Amino acid sequence: VFQGRILARRSVGRETRYEVEVKTRYRQRFPLVSREYLWVPNTCGCPPLQEGGDYLLMAWRHVNHEQTLNRILLRPDGYARPWTPREEQLVRGAARSC
């Protein structure tokens, strides 16, 4: 779970790749650097992420069977909400209790 700003969007085949500036990490099961690519397995714009927007994102680390692909994946039904101070307050509270 992290707060990120969408810097760019690009369709790559049947997927969408977002370049994201990672601002705050709330729960870190795998390492994140200050800029990451976030992949969505569709090109329909679901979830709708706008360039320049700040979002609270819950993503998964995706490693393929051959262990040759390691990336951050946001599923179409994943958690992606516009970032607000209220969202931050809720996430910080949840992180303390988890």
Largest sheet: 7 strands, mixed
CATH fold annotation = OB fold (Dihydrolipoamide Acetyltransferase, E2P)
* Mean pLDDT across residues: 85
**Helix content class:** 10-25%
Oligomeric state of the chains present here: single chain
* CATH class descriptor name: Mainly Beta
N-C termini distance? 13 Å
The number of distinct β-strands equals 7
Which structural category fits the helices and strands?
A: mainly beta
Taken in chain order, the helices and strands follow as EEEEEEEH
What is the count of DSSP helices, taking H or I runs of 4+ residues?
Answer: 1
Percent of residues in beta strands? over 45%
Q: What is the level-2 CATH architecture name?
A: Beta Barrel
Total domain modules: 1
Strand order in the sheet with the most strands: 5-6-3-2-1-4-7
Sum up the overall morphology in one term: globular
Radius of gyration: 13 Å
Poorly predicted parts: none
Domain NTR: 1-98
Protein name: ATL5 protein
Subcellular location: Secreted
Main location: secreted
